[in-house]
Each structure stands twice: as C-alpha cells, then as structure tokens.
C-alpha cells in the first residue's frame, strides 16, 4: 500500500511521488504516517523528513520547519 508525498517550498515543488511511509519531525516527537490513516495537521520543527520509497529505499533530507497535512491518501508538506 502506498501514500503520495508532496513536499513544497515557497519557490518550488521539491518532491512529488508515491511512497510506503513518511516520518515527520514534530515538536512532540516523530510522527509516522502510512496510507489510509487518520487525517492530521501538524506543525513541523527543524529536523529530518524521512520516507521509504516503493522500492524499499530509505531517504531523508533536512528541513527547517513548516506544516504537514495528511488526508489518508496524500501527505502534503509545506516548508518554510
């Protein structure tokens, strides 16, 4: 099962692909997101946004904060 991850900075779409899972850095700890899960809106803190591709490769990149919204099908991340 997959979930779509869309990461956007103020100037461009940074990432736009289907993934297995997403882990977001939030002020209350890391938040793991899988497909078909409850909707959530979360503030993000400085840290690493991690995700697993459909082929099983684990990737991450640093972020400075922002907001993320999961609707069960798409995780939309708005970076600062």
Keywords for this entry:
mainly beta; ATP Synthase, domain 1; globular
Q: Let me know the CATH homologous superfamily.
A: F0F1 ATP synthase delta/epsilon subunit, N-terminal
Q: What share of the residues lie within helices?
A: under 10%
Through-space gap between termini = 29 Å
Please, what is the average pLDDT?
96
The ordered string of helix (H) and strand (E) elements is: EEEEEEEE
Structural class: mainly beta
Oligomer: single chain
DSSP strand tally: 8
Can you describe this structure?
- This protein has one domain: F0F1 ATP synthase delta/epsilon subunit, N-terminal (ATP Synthase, domain 1, Sandwich), CATH 2.60.15.
- It is an all-beta fold.
- Strand 5 and strand 6 form a beta hairpin.
- Helix content is 0%, strand content 68%.
Task: Give the topology.
Layout: E1 3-8, E2 13-26, E3 29-33, E4 40-44, E5 47-53, E6 58-63, E7 66-70, E8 74-79
Parallel strand pairs: 1-8
Antiparallel strand pairs: 1-2, 2-3, 2-5, 4-7, 5-6, 7-8
